[in-house]
């Protein structure tokens, strides 16, 4: 304050002092005074010293501060008055300044003048020259640390008056040009407080130029810029300059630069600035990779060098943290900045262009309190992850280099991970899992606890996909970080309270996780061992089947962890386990076995779980031996009998040996006594199974345990003999004691118990064969391979018998085959629901009685997805193949009652023609037997393969549990498959791709030969309908398997999947598959081929190259007439659904959508209207009156999508661009007019519903995108605009008539569309008026009343008195035939 007022008084004294100053005072001026060495300051004799003394300031020498005796205001007033009253005024002022200059020549005096007086600082500022002299003193600090230049600059701040501000600015900039960096920084940062506002623009330009020359001054210059009052234009110019220096800025200066850039943007240029900043901000270069940093540290000397490296790394992390803080403050307080960041990240369209800053900014945006930023960040992250543009590698790089910085955003990272993991979109779920895993490994213990707690919450949610991923993550963390996870074992143990909502596979994962923590080799979680034992024993002792199942699964998983093979210890007695641990394992196994004897279902589950354990775990040799020691003996005792001349016993049907594959003359053979098992089970039906088991004199065995027990036996043998099953190979070809299957032909004459017994016998036989195929499918011996193929033929034949038997036994409940789920979850369909399937299958010509000696003549029931072409056999064809036709039910609904086939069974597809020579008694070749996969067996294997791929590789949101959970669990029957990862399953499919292509070529060759023999006639006489159906099904299944394999999201695009095919490039893939189009026998197979081609092209990354070929192929299929083997045209709901998908593929891949729609609507539909009632269009044979709705809906939908992609018109568009957009809209409106007018002919409700729905959407798109174009192009293209509006008015009138029709019919489905459509019609009226007004042509517009009319244009009389809707083109009461003249009059420009 004192400095301000002194400056003011001096200025006033110079300008306002009276001229009559006393001459006596003038004589007292002594000029420059030399320095005195006296104790007291002799400068008091000068005018300067005398005036100060009289005004109240006493000057001191040495280190003593100057003193002020009066108040600052009084001192300033006295000094001013003293100068003005001097007779020598104004010359006395110069003498005063001269005295000042003399006084401050002494450094001690000068220092005292800069320091505060007692009690306040005294410093008199006179003019610019004095300041210049003061600043010329050397710049070093004094002995006491006083920075003289900084103190001098501080005196210049906040002055009340500046005589010449421009000159002052120039002097300051001169100083900046010659001073040291430290003084330059002080001066630059003080400029806003020294200069007046009028000088801000000029000084900003000079500082901007200085910034380009010297980046060392970046921080002070930007600090000054932030305090200067600059225009928006100048600020933008400065920001561009700052942005240009961004790459050269020091790391420690980067936060200031980023903060300045973000706080200087305006809403208009926010996106451009943020995009530029994002492009130039290379945070990857700011932080050294830890490995590189470590190597540098090792190369340098130890000690101080390492500490300096550590401090440098910490400093770089701090700088990055400050940069992110600057971004956070900008997005928090400026909505436009946060939106610009989101848009900038969203605009990046390739994974290579995404950088670490993108993820960090998304975390920042999510951490702000603004809801729009939080939701926007979550949305953008999901979109980018789904598109594969933000990948796991970028996430790992971010965590690896910026973990310290990201720790502050951990709550947002956790929330985003939770959201991704809960997403119904399966493509983003794994990314959320990676965020959890990296957070656990990179952050501190608090974060680890939060991660584990969140994952436990996911598991307890009960949502299928969410639970699976969370359990998988927890298991992975236990494997990677066992010691850290052991700290949180108590949290994980809490999941045991929520097992009711978990599936069997999830329960396995949970117990695997917990037992790994509690009983693993490192014994990290021993504190939960007792809890685990308590839970397992409690569940085992339960009488409720559900809890007993949980206990069996849990106990076996605990055995797997406790009994796992480990490094050998001293007291292991030949194994790798301590003696006490071995005792606990065997005791637990004994407990499980005793508890599971209470029911055959529990025993079968125990065998299955133990078999899975033997298959997946490497057990201790002693434990493995204990498990397998009695399996073989027990199996032989319970299920195997020796062959004899007669079969004794009381059975419901005559007993006989069936399906013997061994030599008939061989002696000492064995057989599976299945008939006896089922008979005994039937006799003891209703008795408690445990009572019979405890009877030592007669041990009862359930047929349910046959297949599970054999699976355990087989796996134990494989483990013991390294995959060789020679010890039990007799079970592959041994016969079964059954009954003659001719009884199936008389099933309708049997009693209900007999039919049910027969069904049970067939189910158990099929399941035995399926388990036998599982066991021996991988054997290399040719004879065994032949037997495996023969067993597959047995299965397909028996399934046809079972279909007919089930058809005659309504309400039958089959025996369980999968024991890890609720029995109610696999309940069969009721007889009422089976009846339609029975009728459908009756017309498929699939069930045929085959001779018992040739059981391979028939095959399994086809899947739902292969039934489209089979449901259309007409009566004549049915009669023709009556001998080969039997009624039956679909086995699809009974799939859960069959044993699961292993993935290894699919290797049978690679078997070609198998043969062997049978020898007579003299060892001479007697006959040569040949076996190969027939069409029925091929379809059977492909059906199973496709089901497996659909379950494992098709990531569908449907896996989420609905609100009302269905009765059927889709995972039942895939227990073994769930033990494998999707990657392993995909690898298995890749190995089979050459074989699948071979089968595909065989199907192609068959149909090609068929067409050439019959001159292209599909329904030729003498056609083997059964073979045609089977090979058609195989054809379709092969394409579906290939499509599912190629569609898998994790399949590599260029190597793993494609290189094993008989071609190398994507072009070769495409051309290879394209060759199959000529022999496609049905529309459903044509659709599969089109989808496969589209997927292959997409995997190649050059989809645009093949779009035209895909569209041409789809058009060819649409222009082809599809008939069944009976000669009828394909029809039905499935046909329509297939046709709709194929039409969408054509319209989506064609280059010109509008032209394609016009071609169908302008050519195909008129041909249909001019044809007979049951005929179809000549150009488009698939278009008939039954499929019109399919074509109409497809065209309306794709037309609405197409107009949404037309870019909106802009005033800046040149004439050529504007004309092109206008032409596109003319074509679209013309197509729309054609489609809307079709409702006059096809006026049924579904067509009207489609027209109302898509008509409103088209109108809204026209208002949003088309009308701005008309605004700008009206003057230059008046005729085109006029034509477009005339055509569109006709369409809107028809839409209005449809609204009236819907109301008068009082159809709720149609009237739901009316309010929104009428609102859009009204908006269109006023939008056209606004367009005409904008172009000064409002006289061409007039408004009238549009009467309510029906579809035929007749007035609705009942609504004559009601208020009518407004629309510009139809206000005239003229008759309908004058409507065109009416339109022309209205739009007469």
TrEMBL record:
Record's compositionally biased regions (Polar residues): 30-40
Localization (cell): Nucleus
InterPro entries tied to this protein: FANCD2 (IPR029448)
Assigned keywords, A-Z: Isopeptide bond, Nucleus, Ubl conjugation
Stretch list, region Disordered: 1-40, 819-885, 1355-1382
GO molecular function: DNA polymerase binding
Pfam families in alphabetical order: FancD2
GO biological process, one term: double-strand break repair involved in meiotic recombination
Compositional bias (Basic residues): 837-851
CDD domains: FANCD2
GO annotation, cellular component aspect: condensed chromosome; nucleus
Low complexity bias locations: 827-836
Principal location: nucleus
Signal peptide feature range: none
Composition bias type Acidic residues, residue spans: 864-874
Family membership noted in the UniProt record: Belongs to the Fanconi anemia protein FANCD2 family.
Name listed for the protein in its UniProt record: FA complementation group D2
UniProt source species: Oncorhynchus mykiss (Rainbow trout)
């Amino acid at each position: 304050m004192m400095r301000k007022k002194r400056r003011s008084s001096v200025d006033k004294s110079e300008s306002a002092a009276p001229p009559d100053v006393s001459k006596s005072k003038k004589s007292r001026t002594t000029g420059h005074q030399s320095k005195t060495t006296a104790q007291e300051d002799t400068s008091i004799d000068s005018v300067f010293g005398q005036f100060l003394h009289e005004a109240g300031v006493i000057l001191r020498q040495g280190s003593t501060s100057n003193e002020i005796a009066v108040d600052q205001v009084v001192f300033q007033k006295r000094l001013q008055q003293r100068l003005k009253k001097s007779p020598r005024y104004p010359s006395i002022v110069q003498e005063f300044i001269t005295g000042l200059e003399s006084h401050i020549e002494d450094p001690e005096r000068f220092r005292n003048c800069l320091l505060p007086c007692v009690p306040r600082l005294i410093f008199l500022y006179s003019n610019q020259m004095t300041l210049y002299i003061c600043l010329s003193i050397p710049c070093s600090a004094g002995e006491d640390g006083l920075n003289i230049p900084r103190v001098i600059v501080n005196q210049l701040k906040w002055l009340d008056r500046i005589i010449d501000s421009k000159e002052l600015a120039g002097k300051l900039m001169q100083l900046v040009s010659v001073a040291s960096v430290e003084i330059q920084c002080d001066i630059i940062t003080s400029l806003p407080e020294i200069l007046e506002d009028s000088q801000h623009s000029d000084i900003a330009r000079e500082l901007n130029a200085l910034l380009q020359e010297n980046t060392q001054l970046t921080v002070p210059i930007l600090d000054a810029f932030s305090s200067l009052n600059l225009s928006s234009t100048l600020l933008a110019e400065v920001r561009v300059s700052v942005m240009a220096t961004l790459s050269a800025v020091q790391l420690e200066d980067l936060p200031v630069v980023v903060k300045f850039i973000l706080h200087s943007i305006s809403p208009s240029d926010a996106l451009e600035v943020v995009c530029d900043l994002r492009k130039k901000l290379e945070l990857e270069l700011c932080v050294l990779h830890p490995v590189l940093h470590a190597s540098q540290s090792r190369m340098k000397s130890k000690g101080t060098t390492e500490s300096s490296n550590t401090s440098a790394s910490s400093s770089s992390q701090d700088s990055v943290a400050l940069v992110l803080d600057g971004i956070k403050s900008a997005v928090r307080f400026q909505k436009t900045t946060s939106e610009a960041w989101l848009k900038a990240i969203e605009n990046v369209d390739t994974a290579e262009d995404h950088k670490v800053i993108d993820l960090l900014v998304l975390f920042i945006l999510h951490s702000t309190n603004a809801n729009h930023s939080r939701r926007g960040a979550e949305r953008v992250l999901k979109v980018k992850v789904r598109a594969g543009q933000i990948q796991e590698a970028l996430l790992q790089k971010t965590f690896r280099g910026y973990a310290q910085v990201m720790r502050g955003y951990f709550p947002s990272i956790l929330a985003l991970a939770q959201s991704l993991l809960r997403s119904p979109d399966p493509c983003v779920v794994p990314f959320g899992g990676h965020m959890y895993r990296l957070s656990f490994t990179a952050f501190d213990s608090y974060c680890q606890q939060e991660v584990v707690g969140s994952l436990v919450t996911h598991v307890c949610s009960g949502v299928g996909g969410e639970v699976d991923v969370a359990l998988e993550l927890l298991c992975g963390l236990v494997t990677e970080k066992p010691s850290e996870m052991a700290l949180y074992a108590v949290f994980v143990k809490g999941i045991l309270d929520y097992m009711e909502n978990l599936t069997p596979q999830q329960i396995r994962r949970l117990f695997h996780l917990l037992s790994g923590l509690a009983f693993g080799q490192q014994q990290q979680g021993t504190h939960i061992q007792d809890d685990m034992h308590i839970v397992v024993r409690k569940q085992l002792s339960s009488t409720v089947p559900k809890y007993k199942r949980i206990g069996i699964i849990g106990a076996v998983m605990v055995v797997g962890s406790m009994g796992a093979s480990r490094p050998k210890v001293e007291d292991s007695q030949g194994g790798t386990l301590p003696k006490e641990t071995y005792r606990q394992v065997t005791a637990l196994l004994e407990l499980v076995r005793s508890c599971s004897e209470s029911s055959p279902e529990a025993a079968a589950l125990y065998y299955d779980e133990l078999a899975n354990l033997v298959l997946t775990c490497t057990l201790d040799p002693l434990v493995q031996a204990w498990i397998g020691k009695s399996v073989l003996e027990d199996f032989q005792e319970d299920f195997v009998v020796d062959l004899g001349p007669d079969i004794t016993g009381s059975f419901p049907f005559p007993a006989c040996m069936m399906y013997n594959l061994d030599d008939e003359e061989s002696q000492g053979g064995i057989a599976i006594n299945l008939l006896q098992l089922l008979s005994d089970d039937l006799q003891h039906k209703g008795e408690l199974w445990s009572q019979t088991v405890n009877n030592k004199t007669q041990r009862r065995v359930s047929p349910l345990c046959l297949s599970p027990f054999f699976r355990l036996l087989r796996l134990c043998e494989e483990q013991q003999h390294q995959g060789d099953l020679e010890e039990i190979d007799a079970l592959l070809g041994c016969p079964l004691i059954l009954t003659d299957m001719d009884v199936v032909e008389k099933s309708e004459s049997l009693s209900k118990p007999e039919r049910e017994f027969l069904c049970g016998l067939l189910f158990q036989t099929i399941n035995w064969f399926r388990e036998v195929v599982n066991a021996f499918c991988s054997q290399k011996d040719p004879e065994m391979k032949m037997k495996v193929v023969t067993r597959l033929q047995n299965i397909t034949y028996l399934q046809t018998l079972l279909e007919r038997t089930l058809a005659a036994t309504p309400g039958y409940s089959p025996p369980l085959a999968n024991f890890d789920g609720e029995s109610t979850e696999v309940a069969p369909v009721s007889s009422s629901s089976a009846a339609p399937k029975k009728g459908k299958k009756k017309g498929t010509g699939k069930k045929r009685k085959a001779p018992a000696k040739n059981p391979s003549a028939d095959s399994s029931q086809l899947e739902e997805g292969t039934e489209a072409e089979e449901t259309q056999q007409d009566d004549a064809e049915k009669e023709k193949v009556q001998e080969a036709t039997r009624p039956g039910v679909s086995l699809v609904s009974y799939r859960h009652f069959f044993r699961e086939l292993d993935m290894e069974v699919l290797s049978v597809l690679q078997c070609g023609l198998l043969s062997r020579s049978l020898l007579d008694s003299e060892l001479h070749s007697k006959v040569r037997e040949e076996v190969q996969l027939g069409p029925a067996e091929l379809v059977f294997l492909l059906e199973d393969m496709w089901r497996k791929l659909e379950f494992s590789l098709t990531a569908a949101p449907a896996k989420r549990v609905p609100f009302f959970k269905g009765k059927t669990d889709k995972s039942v029957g895939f227990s073994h498959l769930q033990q494998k990862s999707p990657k392993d399953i995909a690898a298995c499919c890749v190995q089979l791709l050459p074989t699948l292509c071979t089968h595909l070529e065989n199907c192609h060759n068959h149909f090609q030969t068929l067409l050439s023999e019959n001159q292209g006639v599909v329904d030729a006489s003498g056609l083997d309908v059964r073979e045609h159906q089977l090979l058609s099904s195989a054809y379709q299944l092969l394409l579906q398997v290939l499509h599912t394999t190629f569609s898998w999201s994790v399949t590599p695009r260029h190597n793993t999947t494609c290189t094993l095919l008989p071609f190398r490039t994507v072009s070769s893939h495409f051309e290879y598959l394209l060759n199959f189009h000529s022999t496609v026998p049905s529309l459903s197979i044509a659709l599969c081929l089109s989808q496969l081609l589209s997927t292959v092209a997409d995997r190649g990354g050059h989809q645009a190259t093949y779009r035209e070929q895909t569209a041409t192929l789809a058009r060819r299929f649409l222009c082809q007439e599809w008939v069944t083997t009976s000669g009828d045209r394909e029809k039905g709901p499935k046909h329509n659904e297939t046709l709709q998908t194929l039409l969408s593929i054509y319209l989506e891949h064609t280059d010109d959508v509008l032209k394609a729609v016009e071609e169908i609507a302008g050519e195909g539909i008129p041909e249909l209207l001019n044809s007979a009632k049951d005929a179809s269009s000549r150009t488009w044979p698939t278009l008939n009156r039954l499929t019109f709705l399919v074509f109409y809906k497809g065209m309306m939908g794709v037309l609405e999508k197409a107009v949404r992609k037309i870019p909106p018109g802009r005033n800046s568009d040149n004439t050529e661009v504007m004309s092109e957009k206008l032409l596109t809209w003319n074509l679209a409106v013309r197509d729309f007019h054609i489609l809307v007018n079709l409702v006059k002919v096809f006026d049924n409700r579904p067509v009207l519903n489609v027209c109302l729905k898509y008509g409103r959407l088209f109108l809204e798109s026209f208002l949003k995108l088309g009308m701005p174009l008309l605004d700008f192009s009206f003057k230059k293209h008046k005729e085109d605009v006029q034509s477009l509006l005339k055509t569109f008015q006709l369409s809107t009138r028809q839409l209005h008539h449809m609204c009236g029709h819907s109301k008068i019919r009082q159809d709720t489905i149609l009237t739901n569309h009316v309010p929104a459509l009428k609102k859009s019609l009204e908006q269109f009226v006023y939008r056209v008026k606004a367009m005409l007004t904008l172009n000064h042509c409002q006289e061409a517009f007039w408004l009238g009343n549009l009467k309510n009319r029906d579809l035929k244009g007749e007035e609705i009389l009942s609504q004559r008195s009601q208020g009518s809707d407004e629309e510009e083109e139809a206000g005239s009461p003229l008759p309908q035939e004058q409507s065109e003249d009416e339109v022309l009059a209205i739009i007469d420009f």
